[in-house]
Amino acid sequence: MEIATFLEYCLGKGIHLYLKDGELSYRAQKGAMTQDILSSIKERKPDILQYLKKVEEANRPFQVSSTSKDRGILFNRFLWKDYSKRVIEVSSSNATHSVIRQKGEIYADSLVKSINYILGRQKVLNSTVEISNGNLYLVHQPKQEPAFQEIKVKGDTPEQRENVATRIANELVWQEYNLDKGPLYRVFLIRISFTDYMLGVGLHHAIGDAISIGIFFQELMIVYNSVLSSTPPRILPIRFQYMDYLASMEDWAKSPAGIRHINYWKDTIKSAPFTGLLSDGNQFKIRTSTEESAEKTIVIDADITSGLKQLASTLKKTLFCILLSAYNIAIWRMNGQEELVVVALQAGRINADFQNIIGNFAMEVAYKTNLTGNPSFAEIAERGTNTMNEAHSHQPVPLDWVRKALADEGISFNAPGISILTGSSDEKQDDFRPRSIKIEPPGVRHGCHGFPVSCAMEFIDRESVIEGSIVYRTDVYEEETINKFLDCFKDVVIEAIKEPGKRLGEFSAC
Length: 510
Prior knowledge:
Elements (H helix, E strand, L loop, with lengths): L2 H10 L2 E6 L2 E6 L6 H24 L12 E4 L5 E3 L4 E2 L6 E9 L4 H14 L5 E6 L2 E6 L7 E5 L5 H16 L11 E9 L2 E9 L5 H20 L12 H12 L2 H15 L22 E8 L1 H14 L3 H17 L3 E8 L16 E8 L6 H17 L5 H9 L9 E6 L12 E2 L9 H5 L4 E7 L4 E8 L5 H20 L12
Parallel strand pairs: 9-10, 13-15, 15-17
Antiparallel strand pairs: 1-2, 3-8, 4-5, 6-11, 6-16, 7-8, 10-11, 12-18, 13-14, 17-18
Helix pairs in contact: 1-2, 3-5, 7-11, 8-9, 8-13, 9-10, 9-13
């Protein structure tokens, strides 16, 4: 058996062989690594190492040039309102933010000096968006004045001032960005009193993801404290800029390795380009000028949450895999499709050099699950794990590129999204510790939580309960359909907890 065939065989058995620091390593499901397979791996180890090193070199995604770039093509999932027509979405909902409430002293002039320092360090903050030939480009601009506002609120009582500050924070967070002129970030300080304030940072998704907000805030505090103490900031250097990364990815997409990976994802998806809650595939051709969306919430109570986590432990799967499996079954109960594609997010920061760079590295990954053969819930979860292992063994590429490749063949890709986050507990925090302020959006954001699809589910694991929501396109689904789907999803979860061996066809009809 050839090495490539042997590695595929291992993958099918739930064993992923890969390189780690130049040495052979593996991930395997419990019980998958039999003595026979282990002996074969040991016997073939030199050849496997040689093969994997060649594959790694051939598939190396890019080498970031040391020559700084001032322009890079965007492949950002948040920026397109209509992928097929390449219509840009300019709404402020395409942004991420963080607002903290804290007591203590803070000086606006020192904040401005700190922002100036970061502007010189993270050059992506001084950029604008251009559209040319159906593509979006991020263009570096000369350094501008810091985008900073200081607001002092008025009110007769602390409660009144708190309410005014919260209202202003909401207005500032959701204020529109000017993509043509910039800036694409903002920092604001809202003073409730001299020693009581809200500090907010916002980034448009053209230049930053949720991780970038954390980087920005962390660097702001580090540099701010160094400004106060008149000492150099103790901060790691940046090896290259986000614009250099974009330019390198653009070059890689045209390389043999890039084309090979794009074709892999295209071929993976094209057999099931339409996944939705209804059986009529034509639903995805419906388009309106507004593409409005709405949101429904779901709370999985403590007993069921505990059961889900116990099920994950019993099946040796992640909670994400269990929820994905239930999501797939609920969709199948609604539409009868046996090949389903669900899109999930990953951070995309696969290179250690990306960890302290502000930029939007987040990428979608398409998970295709085959439900043929009337499998049990446990078997579906196993198939889901194999699907994820296979997907992660291939270099992720921006799904925008895959959509465009499919569009060239007349195929419009559309699939639901799913994400799961770990939320913090709601314990009371000390007044002198920073605490996040919940900012409410002015409406449900377009694109179903950032996915340019017809519906998406987002789960937040808060230890005792799992809070979920489904955002859906109102020009595709009626509220009655969404309510029916949520009831179906809850039934699937409860039945899977009680009987993991239950077959697909035995789950309650929607």
